Amino acid sequence: MKLVDRKILLNPGPATTTDTVKNAMVVEDICPREEEFGSLIEGIKTDLVKVVHGEGAYKCALFAASGTGGLEAAITSAVPEGKKLLVIENGAYGARMVKIAQTFGIEVVHYQLEYGDYIDVATVEKLLAEDQTISHLAVVHHETTTGMLNPVQKICDIAHNHKVEVIVDCMSSYAGIPIDLREWNAEYIISSSNKCIQGMAGLVFVIFKESLLPSLANQKRSFYFNIYNQYVGFEKTGQMQFTPPVQVCYALRQAINEYFEETEQGRWNRYQNNWDVLVEGLQDLGFSFLLPYDQQSKILLAIIEPKSEKYDFDEMHNFLYEKGYTIYPGKGAKKSTFRLSVLGDLHEEDINGFLSELKRYMGSL
Length: 365
Ligand SMILES: Cc1ncc(COP(=O)(O)O)c(C=O)c1O
Description:
Pfam families: Aminotran_5
Function: Involved in phosphonate degradation.
Protein name: 2-aminoethylphosphonate--pyruvate transaminase
CATH superfamily of the largest domain: Type I PLP-dependent aspartate aminotransferase-like (Major domain)
Strand content: 15-25%
CATH class of the largest domain: Alpha Beta
Bound molecules: pyridoxal-5'-phosphate
CATH topology of the largest domain: Aspartate Aminotransferase, domain 2
Number of strands: 14
Number of helices: 13
Radius of gyration: 21 Å
CATH architecture of the largest domain: 3-Layer(aba) Sandwich
Organism: Fulvivirga lutea
Shape: globular
Enzyme class: transferase
Number of domains: 2
Oligomer: single chain
Largest sheet: 7 strands, mixed
């Protein structure tokens, strides 16, 4: 079964995948307009909603794109002309949503924090109370810039008290951290095929409240990234409007099967255990972290870069890369960091293997 060497990706996706997910891409050639392929997509869309307990109230629009495409679809489809979007930015992915909105001429109310600072929900409340023209709020669940888990439940509750709809970027939390849409009640969440769901890169999905379809029908900002057209187009024809990455869809089917086999709690437990092993090992090596423990996602860790003059991130990266471990640089956090993530098909022995190579590197400094 094994096709290629196993690499340990400690970057926050695209993730290390199982051999069975890789092999699922080797399928007979098929035209995506065939009924058989339509059934595959229908099943994927239904199950993506189930992962976040949205059955009955939520639907899924699936696009061929990277994660950013899904953010663009949600923002451009959701916010009506003449209304404003409140974006909470405490990392680079909040900033990305600001840029998307501005690109399409959507007026943004910007709650900007340093990358690594925790959201003050009283400020969110104040900003919403001050401006009745805000119709939507956008926030990142797991801010991959720093590894911070933002307080989405509280933010959704405040927004809904102000009759404001919520768009949550769940790119690097969906299928890793348990999410229950019956509690959040968020209007839109977005994630992609290559992060905690552990499929291949190439698909992004927006899970949205079905009751929003009539208002979504009025949005014409984008032709390709249009939730209504993409969702209704598939419902009418059983085909995706535009060519999907066929083999990536088969891999996603397999990845979803593996998610349900592992179970929501089982995956979370595995990620948490890997994270605990990683944190302990790094502390033993003398590392410290950007965020306090209770703000951590337990999916990604931003680690303060060593002070040693001999330390060089690229050198450390290359040393570890040669041994089969991929690490990730920092991204504008308020202190200088590098990042390690446990999302993907990773197990305790992988983390221990990484830690012993890192120890060798640190010893060489
Ligand atoms: C929280 C978050 N949002 C958005 C994105 C953007 O995804 P992509 O690079 O697939 O466009 C990422 C990517 O890592 C992310 O972590």
